[in-house]
Specification:
Strand content: under 5%
Largest sheet: none
Order of helices and strands: HHHH
């Protein structure tokens, strides 16, 4: 049976700093440090509570920017789709009109 590992305050602080500021996922930081991801997450949540901030109150602006880009792209795709729908309806109506006009052969 393994003994429980004990971590120093400095080690925890460094792990928390890496998880929060490095841009690397918590899971990857935990793997790199050879600790359980749930343990690292608990340390991060406790640190955020101690600092008066909660994970829910932090806004990830990169996600908001990404969402805005995706919405802009969706609007563009919808516009293109509508143009193609109108074009196909126009072509269909022109084809129908050609069928109704008698052909004059010389």
């Amino acid at each position: 049976m393994q003994k429980r590992r004990r971590y120093t305050k400095a080690y925890k602080d460094d792990a928390i700093r890496l998880a929060m500021q490095s841009g690397i996922s918590q899971a990857q930081v935990a793997r790199d440090l050879d600790i359980n991801a749930g343990l690292l997450n608990r340390w991060v949540v406790e640190a955020q509570r101690a600092n008066g901030s909660s994970p829910e109150s932090q806004v990830d602006y990169s996600s908001d920017e990404k969402l805005q880009r995706m919405q802009d792209k969706l609007d563009k795709v919808r516009t293109e789709r509508d143009i193609l729908k109108k074009r196909s309806m126009f072509i269909k109506s022109m084809t129908d009109m050609q069928r109704q006009i008698p052909a004059y052969h010389s």
